[in-house]
Every structure is written in C-alpha cells, then in structure tokens.
Amino acid sequence: MALTARFTCRRLDMEHNLLEIDGPEFDFDSFADVVAPLLTQLELQVLERELNADLHVWLVDFEGCRLMLKGEHYSGQLWLEGLDSEASPTLAYLATMLQG
Description:
By secondary structure, the chain is of the alpha+beta class. It is 22% helix and 40% strand. The protein has a six-stranded antiparallel β-sheet with strand order 1-2-6-5-4-3, with helices on one face.
C-alpha cells in the first residue's frame, strides 16, 4: 500500500492556513505507514510526533518552515496546518506538488 499511495490536494484554505489532502484510508495504527510516502513526496522532515485519542499531530519541517501534519482517523481527514502567516506561501507551493 505505501509504495502506491497517491496524495492530492483536496483544498487550499489560505485564510485559515490549511492544506487539506486526499489520500489512502488510514486508521490509528496505520497512520505512520500510510503517510510515509506523503513525507517523501513533499520532502517533509518529522521533528516531533504527538498522539491523541483519535488524532495524530506531527510537527514537520519543509525547508525551514514548520508545519503541523494532522490526521484524524475517525473522519479520515488529513491536512497540513501553518503555524503562522509566513507558512502561507509554503502551503501554496506544497499544494502545487500535490496536483493530480
């Protein structure tokens, strides 16, 4: 599954600094394996990982810009969130990397 995973931009919300991502289904236990190709595709480096009851929250870095990669397994939602307004251009660029 991980080698053939395909991720695309679902929606870029510049007002809220969010990049919603479509990809393969995941559950709580499979999240790390499922998003591994996304990390490679976008050249993201994981800095920290936090697990909540139903949410994975990872601090990631893209060329010096820190973002939150979040995955909520009950809804199957996956997104990148900018930590400040400086992240908007980075999210816009990453969205172009996810174009189908």
